[in-house]
Amino acid sequence: MFRTFTERRARKEQERQRELSVRLRSPEPEVRAAAAGEIAQARDMAWAIRELAQAMDREPSPIWFDAVAGPFCDAVCRDRAVQERVERMFAAHADAPVELVRAWTALLAEFGAGAALDTVDDELAAEVGARLRRVREQGGQPDELSGTDPESLTYVVTFGVTVELLHDAVRRYVPLPADDIERTRRETRENLERALAHPARSDDRHALLVSHCELPDDETWADRQLAAVRIREALDLCGSAEPDRVALGVQALAVMLQLNHVCLNDAVRETLDSLCVPDQDPFTFSEVLSCYPSLHAGRRLPDPPVELFLAALGHADPLVRAHAAAGLDTIAPGQPAESRAVAALIEAMEHDPDIEVVRSAAYALATIPCSAEADTRAASAALAGKAGSADPGLRVASVDGAIHRDEPGAFDLLTAELRRTDVEARFVSSVDLFLDLGKLPPKEVTAQWARLLERLRQDGWPDRPNEHEDGDDTQPGFRMALLQLTLDKLRAHN
After folding, report:
1. Which of 112, 233, 321, 490 could form a disulfide with 188 if both were Cys (CB 3.0 to 4.6 A apart)?
2. Which of 246, 251, 302 is nearest to 274 (CA)?
3. What is the DSSP letter of 240?
């Protein structure tokens, strides 16, 4: 009787495992996620870890990756022996991304998930190193997990985030099939040739570059490697002896980096530095300047060229000065020249003869996350003086800077702008932005914002751009969509 009961229970467990394994391979991501959560709590921990390791390595969608990686971490943390192996791995290799990737892929290979990597691509190593630095910047210490209470929130979050970021990087840097590389290279060259037929500063050229480089709606694991192929083509153009092709190459790089195609950093940095030469074409130089902040934001540069940007604020061409001002909020914080950068931005905002340079400097002052309190106070005081400016670009910088820094009365400034029947779309965008950033005022304030925006909608505001607006901000369809999206977010909050 006892043996029969044991056998029945074992058979039932095997059937349950088969059923969960089938669901874990479902084409429906919600089904896969639910199955992963159940498997993580299975009695047979070795089976659970093996199933989830393999599922993590074959998950078809980066968007749903954490729905499998999270349960994998839960299962590992139920098996103290495996958990300690991962802890020791992080402790030994937290500052050696190549060795960490080797050890990690070897561990997963033991569970039948992929192959152990003996050779680790330089780009993968750099990406893993950058991700580990971000974990530390946010307070996590993967190398100290073995001395942390495994039941604590700090441990659970650090362990889970580190594992997810590590294997996500491994998945994104799987080499592409040769046919995919060749097809992408051919398509990129064709698109660049079409773009070359349009003037460098034209909307048509920019639209062509964006349409070719923007990420698809459905993200794939191959996107990063496909971006690397496109970036190599742009870098090749940057090395051309023909100035028009150089300008196109840099413009293509700028678009790719702004669309978050941040890879091949060393090669991109070397190319950008080589183009910062005396008498460089102003348009090309301005595009070079626009690349550095995107590169730095995606993966910290060890020596961001702050001095180059400060010197460029004195360039004869206003386009160059505007790009220099716009980039300082990203590359200057925490650097020895931070205080000089803030002072230079204030000087440009107050005295540059070109309004676009003035606006770029003002918005850089609004968003620069200064490491020194004195620099924060200087930027804040300078922007406070623009709260009553006749130029809406300066007023929005003043408002946004106050909200970014949680200054008293900041939300009142935005409320005052929203009361205007001819309020510029950029102030409505500010509401949308700060809701997304979690900068939430009291509910009575957001309720008031909702009433003011509803009044704008009823009064036909989308059809009435004012003389200070241009581009999309003048298009009724864009204005209506922005208004509706922001109203929906406000109502959800309220």
Report:
1. 233
2. 246
3. -
